[in-house]
Task: structure prediction
Amino acid sequence: MRAKSEKRREIILKAATKLFLKYGYERMSMTELHQHIGYSKATLYNYFASKQELFVESMGNLAKQHTEELQQISSTFTDENIDIWLTLERFGFSLVKMHLRSNIVKMNRILISEGERFGFAEKIYLRGPQQCTLNLTMLFNRALKQNIIHNVDATILAMQYQSLLKLDLLQKRLYGLKPFITDEDIQQHIHAAITTLRLAYEVKN
Result:
């Protein structure tokens, strides 16, 4: 087996992403990718065991900048001195910003239309939404211990917050109804989501 290089892996990912966006999942083939970048099929399979794995990694690579930021924010969730609501705002902004990116929207459309049929939807769910739920659950559990919010299941609250974030802006963007969304639009959207949570669950002193 040939030695792997990060540069070659990145070239393959970028080329595959371009082809997935152009053709969708089913129509994009390893033969097409081989012809597009000139690497042999053996080389492609040396880096990625299947087209399914390649799609999952392509989507992860597109979101890399934002997922790294989300991980950095999540790393502060155990800090007892952070402002819970401000931290939720930062996390929500980065998450919504990621999902509004044009190529992420296109890949999500492919995921919705072809993910279940070709068996990669669950893998992306485990790496994305489920991981967000686990991280937010940790934050809400800390808010419960500090008596910032009423007694409520932290996991359910984490899912509710994500659901509020997905309403309106993300739906309109996914459906192609609102092609341009400003940072101010996102901030207002997140403020409304957090206000809803505070009205429902915040302990009033």
